[in-house]
Amino acid sequence: MRALATSLALLCAGCTGSQTVLAPMGPQAAQLNWLLWSFILICGIIWLLVMFVLVLALRYAAVPSQRGERRAAVIVGVSVAASALVIIVLTVMSYAATRGLSVAADDPLVIRLRGYQWWWEVTYTDRRPDRMLVTANEIHVPVGHPINIELSAADVIHSFWVPNLVGKQDLIPGRRNDLTFTASRPGVYRGQCAEFCGLQHAHMALLVIAEEPAAFEAWRDAQLQVARPPETIEQEAGRTFFVSQPCAACHTVRGTNAAGTLGPDLTHVASRRTIAAGLLETTRGSLAAWIADPQTIKPGNNMPMVTMTPEQLRAVSAWLVDLQ
Amino acid sequence: MTSILQKPRMAFDLSELPLHGKRSASLTWWGTLGFMLIEGSGFALVLAVYLYLASIATEWPLGAPPPDLLPGTIVTAVLLLSLIPNMLVSRWARQEDLRKVRIGMIVMALLGIAPLVPRAFEFSALNVLWDSNAYGSITWTLLGLHTTHLITDLIDTLVLSALMFTRHGRNPRRFGDVQDNAMYWNFVVLTWLPIYASLYGIPRL
Amino acid sequence: MMRAEAGDLQHSIAPDMRDTDLAPEVLDRQLERVWGTPATLWGILATVDHKRIGRRYVATAFIFLAMGGVLALLMRLQLAGPERRLIGPDRYNQIFTMHGANMMFLFAVPVMEAIAVYLVPLMVGTRNIAFPRLNAFSYWIYLAGGVLLWVAFALDMGPDIGWFAYVPLSGPQYGSGKRADIWAQMITFTEIAALAVAVELVVTVLKQRAPGMSLDRVPLFVWAMLVTSFCVIMAMPAIMVASTSLILDRLVGTHFYNPAEGGDVLLWQHLFWFFGHPEVYIIFLPAVGMISGILPTFARRPIFGYLPLVLALIATGILAFGLWVHHMFATGLPRLGESFFTASSMAIAIPNGVQIFCWLATLALGRPVLAAPLLFVLAFFFTFIIGGLSGVMVASVPLDTQVHDTYFVVAHFHYVLIGGAVFPLMGAIYYWFPKLTGRMMSERVGRVVCGLVFVGFNLTFFPMHILGLQGMPRRIYTYQPDMPWGGLNLFVSLSSCLLAAGFLIFFIDIMRCMRWGLPAGDNPWNAATLEWATTSPPRSYNFARIPVVSSANPLWDEPELLVSSGLRVERRELVISTVAAAVPEARDASPANSIWPFFAAIATTGMLISSIFTPWAVVWGSLPVMVTLIGWFWPKSTPEDQA
């Protein structure tokens, strides 16, 4: 059953990344998985026992007697004591797991995650301010290295939940929460906001991409670069339109004049696998479709429709899809 | 219809019982107690909110000097003082002395109005507005909640006083109502004490 | 009003006329005249008969159940496949908020209180509930709150913030329009109604029990309602404080929940769940009482372990207040504190275990008859224990971080609420229907209903456990095609039709049997408690003579039920007895029919709805409320005012 569940879960992990409790990919999730199956086993046995007794009780033809009453009292008493014992065992198991999960990691990679309606801002901290890095909706982590995520929210409550790696933790306005996890295998793990946060709560996903440390460092160095300059005239026109139009009021593209902070940083938008918080795969077509009509694709989201000609739309999407 | 037509065995004669229960034999007494429990829970919760907000705040009071003591202390004094005639009215009601109860109810009506005057000044003595910050919100709410109770009990007292001067006054039920009203006033006064202590004491700690 | 006076003054009978020597027919005629409700519009609006009010309370709650069920089907239609565009996010959010708020505030709590309003006075052997006018007022206020919520939904103004209305999403900055205010004010309506009934029930149980019904002879359903009522009294003020402060934040600019000005977002969650968790037991404990009422009748023996069952009820009621933080395990509270709440949440499994073991012993020691009410109880055992055990899983802090806010939790609480409360409720309807209507429900249809609902329920909700573990969060209006959830969701949606069919047949059968069911007689099940000692349906005055009780199962243990005499018959008179031993201490009057509670409810409704729009409504709106209350309480020189 368990092996089946795991393989089933992995089967569909190929496309956009796996999002399941049943296929743990890190020590925290593995411990939770172990706890889960222990609870399911113990609870399952208890349920079967009670059902068995229920069937017996229905079939048993009792003859009223003082002895029967006394015997029943003893059985009830023993059952209550036994359930108290099971409860204590489960509580202790749960407490032990809690302690195991809250052990502080040495020298973790600290990532700040800030929830917005309906996307995620990801900030990589560093002792050197010039190595600070802001991106969105995609968290790259090195395999085997403990990650400490600092959670905060800009508007309403959200919840960070990547079930393959670790249990969820809320992002709460006015408060800060911490969460530690490690990815033990390379892969793409999907997460989704788990606290109802308004209209597009259903479309607020993120990806955690676990890579070998070298690949991670390469990614990080690439992300630290400013946006690459346009190569074609069309891309050039796209950039010009972007920085001179409302786009720049909300989005930052490092290396240009666009420095808005209301929406995701787009400096390397094309390096990310998806746009609109996990909604669409990043292609020139999806970028164009999104810019042309964000309210049909993700009704209620905060990106307005900017009026533009088809040429302008083509130019902007050509430039954005080049921002690797 | 069988059970109506059968001739039942009568085992218990209730005919000598009084026509109306007093104190703990009266339903309204228990009902008053029930509503005091509900409102007491409400007061306790709002106080808990006060303590909760104070415990998470870096400073308390938030961006305001502590409330001025004078109006609140006058209210407290008047309320405590009112307990004496209140107990007397309750006793006279128990003795079913209509003349004394009438006088007592007028006194209690006046003593219900009296604390409202310094209470009006108490709001400005809080030195903060309800929409300034969470401290202002919770202090105004606490004070407002208690003032609502003062006013509702005052109205109850006024209506009951009027009733005592009508032909309905000379009735053991009315004397029971007067006692219940007195009990409720005790409750309104006693719940004020922890609120007073919190509103004026905690900002000075 | 004028007619009330007229009705009350029609006394051709001498004052202080006693029932002692009256022939049964004369007694019936006279009591019916004093206690009855005329079949006029005035009668309908002014009645304070707990049975009439209880019946309309139950009927209204079931209408809300059906409407909430339709919403559930709409959600299943939307979720049957990925990225369906049948319902947009705005409407969907309203629908799931309405479903939750409707089921909790307009169905589950009211229906349990409603059945108690009907049954408790009969079970304790009295003639009406305590504060019958408050009871009438409670119903009208409840109805107004329900209509407010549904009219708002029909006008596309339904709340869209979840039944839990977390700030800041529901706060002034993010909760647009009046939607959150309508949610908050609906809370005020339903809580006023629920609190009123709670006080009535407490006083009825403590003070109006039949002579001799000492506390150890009180039927377990009555015990359950007593504990429930205390839970209501202690828990509901928390949600009143929460919803009022939310309205203040939204309407007059207070900052309770604004972190920028010293407020706190989690304060809302503490207040909400301090109410919200006991709420689950406010729904569950009456169901437990129903089971303890049904089981002995069909096991054909007294309940096993009366005292442990009473203690378990009380223990559950107390522990219910120590669990609220287990809804907040993902909010980052200190871990040690959370572990305390794990322990307390799991500890509540012990009193629940006590009850289940005592019921099993009752079945084992009895000679069970598998009639429809008992079948629902068996369905309860099967499903509720799954819900209880998944509850143990959710109570564990680390496990909860994985399953919280996923479909696993949706499955869990439907197992608890439908398995634990609705199945016993349906059993209770089959069981007490003959008492309410004088007619039997169809045993054959009952089996079909039980089978359909039981199978439909499990096929609908069990897969949700798996969906949750597969990572599907709650409250999403759709999901993407690449998520592996489509198949199970389609299965769940199809299964929900089966469940709905079961309920549909249930409702149709109720209507059918109200008219065409077989006549029931006083005590069709040969049950032991007092409600079966009177006619089905009971006369307006419940009992021609107040029974005298000397056992916990009076109709089994007393070959002929003893009664008392000496009550006046030309005014509404009932027996007041002592709290513990139920020794009669007074013959007190019970208020007669009055239109004023109806007027007071209208005035209150006007004030509450207006105060959504302006805070000053509380000031001018309270004037009509005051006038109607004075009208209500001003003595009318009726025999009932004599003392």
Give an account of the 3D structure.
The complex is a heterotrimer of chains A (324), B (205) and C (643). Chain A is α+β, with helices and mostly antiparallel strands and 324 residues long. Chain A is built from nine helices and twelve strands. A five-stranded mixed beta sheet of chain A has the order 3-2-1-5-8. A three-stranded mixed beta sheet of chain A has the order 4-10-9, covered by helices on one side. Chain A is elongated and about 95 Å long. Chain A starts with a helix and ends with a helix. In chain A, 43% of the residues are buried. Chain B is mainly alpha-helical. In chain B, 72% of the residues lie in helices and 2% in strands. Chain B has helices at residues 2-5, 27-56, 69-94, 98-113, 116-125, 134-164, 172-201; one strand at 9-13. In chain B, α3 (69-94) packs antiparallel against α7 (172-201). Chain B is elongated. The N and C termini of chain B lie far apart (72 Å). In chain B, 43% of the residues are buried. Mean pLDDT of chain B is 93; it is low at 1-5. Chain C is mostly helical. Chain C has one domain (2-10, 18-641): Up-down Bundle (Cytochrome C Oxidase, Chain A), CATH 1.20.210. Chain C has helices spanning 2-9, 24-35, 41-46, 50-79, 89-123, 132-154, 179-207, 220-251, 265-299, 306-319, 335-347, 349-365, 372-395, 397-403, 407-437, 443-469, 486-516, 554-557, 596-610, 617-633, and strands spanning 547-548, 562-565, 573-577, 584-589. In chain C, strands 1-2 form a two-stranded antiparallel sheet. Chain C is globular, with a radius of gyration of 25 Å. Chain C starts with a helix and ends in a 10-residue tail after the last helix. The relative contact order of chain C is 0.13. The model of chain C is unreliable at 1-11 (pLDDT under 50). Chains A and C meet through α1, α2, α3 and β7 of A and α5, α11, α12, α13 and α14 of C. β1 of chain B pairs parallel with β2 of chain C.
